[in-house]
Amino acid sequence: MSLTLDEVLAQNDPTKVEQLSKEELHRLFWRFKGQQKTSDRDKAFWQSTNENLKVAYERLDEQERELARAYGIIQEDLSVAHNVQRALLPRVLGEMADEIEVAVYHKQLTEVGGDYYDFFRLPNNRFAIGVFDISGHGVSSALITAFLKAQFMQVMEHFDSPQGIVEWVNRTSFDFLREVRKYATVNLVTFDPDGIRYVSGGGYGYLLRADQSSHQFEKKNHFLGLRLKPYREFSLPFASGDILALYTDGMVEAQNKQGIDYSVRRLNDVISRHRNDPCEDIVARCVEDYTAFRAQDTDDITLIVVRRR
Amino acid sequence: MTGQQDSTMLVHGSLMVGYAQACKNLNIVAGRAAHAFIDKLEINNWYPLEQWRELERLVLRSYGRVEPILVRVGIEMMLGWYHYGPGRSLIKHGASFLHFQTGSQGFTSVVQGAPEVIGTFDMDFYDRRRGRAVIHSTTPFNRWMERGVLIGGLSAPGDLDYVDVLQGDDPDLLHCEFH
Fold first, then answer.
1. Nearest-CA distance from B89 to chain A in Å?
2. Residue A186 CB partners (closer than 8 Å, separation 6+)
């Protein structure tokens, strides 16, 4: 009795091949040849795919090298930009150092950033401190800091009051800032012999008097570049031993792992606790406390602490 | 084939989608752009030949030796057509695919245009007993892919033990062998 090819294959016994009919032997022949053909086609397909993969890896490798080269150039540029931005930061003016003790902590999130502070000399021989936070981070914000510095340098020769200065800068910068879709917080403080005047739009200011009373800056003004409206100026006494802290939102809005803000209150408490220390030490304690608290930095940070001598 | 001729020929979405799906199944098209292009195809639409060419280029530009890939795409297309499309209800035996493909429901049903542009896909010779056939193709499609289409269509029903399609000296003649 002859068997079919499928029956022989099902029995898994090669000796049964002898029982295949002639017709089934032919089928076996063609099936074997068919498998060879399929195998040849598969082999050609996978060879071609493999060659393609090899070419793709080589291209990837080349692109990786290109990327590394481009990244190197960008890093070098950013490093130069970082140095330029640092060089644009001010040194404490001589007459300023005679009147106040100053300490600064300034850290950009990336090589260059959008926090900017400056010390200005006014036409009435007084001086001012400005702290600004440009929206966003990185290169675009850094470019705006240079622009704002140029604007402030121009106007400082013409106005004594923070209100006049800030309104002039807002007016002359408004169209440009709108065009580039940027705005900036402003915190400008002028130091008179017995007090301070300030304009704050989005900036933070904390005044701690020697008699233990304190005052948080009014923030009712608008940011630079947002509205063409007048700014309100405020005056406060600032006597010997009084401490003034000016800062951007970088520290106070940073969060810990539980998503809780570092907060204005916590920063002010640290300042208050260390009020009798030198300003450098107050800043150092604030940075220590902040660093221990926050999960990671998420913004540029500027903190300036001054004390009337 | 010139651009002007291209513009007078239309390719049915089922062919485009079948080709695209085969490319996806075999993971031979890469990148978001390719997938975005493929995903926009509609099975019931007609597309200009240039769009088919674009689909072909997605494969052609990726491979140094593209011929085995195109054969495989053709096979995959027809396996998909048979197992997941209407194929199973249209042909019962592998050999009858040749009649189907060269008949009114085959090639001519998925292209539109002037005869001199769309070309022909005819059976010049057929001998079932000896398992031989010759297809004469003057379509604007790639012959390697057409070889795959014939191999896939002949193999899909699973009743043939041996299937091969080769090109002779005349690249438009596709020599089929099936047993």
1. 25
2. A130, A132, A166, A169, A199, A200, A201, A202, A203, A221, A223, A224
